[in-house]
Amino acid sequence: MIGVGKLKQYTNVLEKPLSKGKQEVSLSAFAFLFSELVQYNQTQVDNISELERRLEDAGYAVGARVLELLCHREKVADSLEKGTEHEDEYMISEKEPLVNRFISIPKDMGTFNCGAFVAGIVRGVLDNAGFPAVVTAHFVPVEGQQRPRTTILIKFAEEVLRREARLG
Amino acid sequence: MAPIAPRSGDAVFANVERVNAELFTLTYGAIVRQLLTDLEEVEEVNKQLDQMGYNIGIRLIDEFLAKSNVSRCVDFKETAEVIAKVGFKMFLGVSASVTNWDADGTCCSLILEDNPLVDFVELPDTCQGLYYCNVLSGVIRGALEMVSMKTEVTWVRDMLRGDDAYELKVKLLKQVPEEYPYKDDE
C-alpha cells in the first residue's frame, strides 16, 4: 500500500507551497507539548530566572519564524503605532494566556511565569522586524479574582525611540 | 444505563478547543532545537523526544478516553484503528491509515496522512540520524501502556529522511493483565 498518504514529496522544503496557516491542532496537544518544554527546561537550570530565560529563548526562536511567515503572507506594517506619545513601554495584558491555562505554579517557585515563552515570541518578532526591545512577563493581581492576569511588558530600546522620533 | 456511543474523530475534534497549528509546529521545532544544542548527540535527542512523548502519552490517554467515549477494544486491530482514526484526529486534527498487518494481528503500520510536526522542517546534514517526530512514537507507547498494552513503536519511513511517507510500526509485545492497584490489607 504505497502512496496511501496525501503527502507529496518535495526535494527541498522551499519548494513546498506555503500553507495559508488555517490548520489547527487541539489546545490540549499544545498544552501537553508546552508542559514538556517547561519540565525539560526545569531539569536544565538551577533557578527561576534561568528557567524563564530559557523559555524566553525558545519563544524567541518561534517569534522570529512567525514574523517570517507573516512577511511571506502579507505586507508588513511600515511602522509600529504608538499608543501614547513619549512612552517607551507598552503592555499587553491577558487574563489567562494559553501557556498559563493548565499551569499551576508551586509555592516554592515564587514569581515564575510561563508567559516568559510568550514574551520570547514577542521579542523574537520585534527584534527581527527591527524593533529591539526588552520584553518580560509579569503576574498582576486582579481584585476579586483568584488567579492573577499576565502582563507582557515591552520596553523598546532607546535607538528605536530615537529613530521613530526622527522619522516623525 | 445505555452505553454512550463512541464519537468519531471529526466530531471530537470539532468540539475541543483548538490552537493555530503553526504555533504548535514552531514550538515543537524550538524544543528539538533546544535538545540538539543541549544534548549534542543525535541519538540522545531521539531518546529524549521519545521520553517526552511517553510522558505525554500516559497523561493524554485520560483525556482521550473521557472525550471519545471509546470503550474497550475487542482486539489489537480495533485498537490500531481507533488510534489512527480517533486519536490522531482528536489531538492533531489529522488521521492515519492502518496497513501491513502481520499474520497474528499483533503488528501493523500507521501511515500518517498529514503531519503537523514537520511543516517548515528540513534536516541538515549534521542531523541525518534524527527521528524528528520521535515524540509521536513515545505518545503511542505511553498511552497504550496505560491501557495494559506493552508496545514497541518504531519509525519505518520518514519523509524528512527521504522516504515517501511517514510510517510508524506498532508492535504489541504483551498484554498486561489488569490488576487492582491495592492489596486488601493496605
TrEMBL record, chain A:
Cellular compartments per GO CC: endoplasmic reticulum; TRAPPI protein complex; TRAPPII protein complex; TRAPPIII protein complex
Entry keyword Nucleus: no
GO biological process terms held by the UniProt record: endoplasmic reticulum to Golgi vesicle-mediated transport
Ranges annotated as spanning the membrane: none
Keyword Protein biosynthesis applies: no
One Pfam family it belongs to: TRAPP
Keywords: Endoplasmic reticulum, ER-Golgi transport, Golgi apparatus, Transport
InterPro entries from the UniProt entry: NO_sig/Golgi_transp_ligand-bd, TRAPP-I_su5, TRAPP_component
Localization of this protein: Endoplasmic reticulum; Golgi apparatus, cis-Golgi network
Family: Belongs to the TRAPP small subunits family. BET3 subfamily.
Assembly: Part of the multisubunit TRAPP (transport protein particle) complex.
Name of the molecule in the record: Trafficking protein particle complex subunit
From TrEMBL, chain B:
GO cellular component: endoplasmic reticulum; Golgi apparatus; TRAPP complex
Pfam families in the record: TRAPP
Subcellular location: Endoplasmic reticulum; Golgi apparatus, cis-Golgi network
Database matches in SUPFAM superfamilies: Ligand-binding domain in the NO signalling and Golgi transport
Key word Transport present: yes
Transport listed as a keyword: yes
GO terms under biological process: Golgi vesicle transport
Subunit structure: Homodimer.
Protein name: Trafficking protein particle complex subunit
Organism encoding this protein: Stephania yunnanensis
